[in-house]
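Aggregate trends can hide what the representation actually does to any particular protein. The sequence in question and its structure tokens are set out directly beneath this paragraph.
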Amino acid sequence: MHRSLIALLLLSCGLANAASCQSVAENLNRQLRPATNANELTNILKSLNQTGQLPAKFVKKRDAQAAGWRPGSSLWQSLPGKSIGGDRFGNRENRLPRSQYQEADLDYQGGKRGAKRIVFNKNGPRFITVDHYQTFTEVAACQ
């Protein structure tokens, strides 16, 4: 009974025939220059699928600032191991379909934030940019 409910849920979400999130991340890295950390991206995609939220390592800008972070400085001085994520992405240049998006840093290793982001809608499409919003690559559905 439990498995049939899960299968029905996956079918209703369009994920029953979706590839694994690991294979989606690996396939994306064949296209992206520079590539992303496939393991981190896999964890993010799985978390968004399962909970609709980013993994716990992500903090919104206002929470990071409340902990002492200032834009342009290293987040890890205030919040070691954390990354910025969960804030609204405005899509001001209209490069993505109209929707309400959030964004999160990818591959953050301390210091200044890099150019890589995942831009996502909890129930809709997800995109990767490795050049700070100049171009976007859509992320295939995964499970």
Notes: The first strand starts at residue 58 and ends at 59.
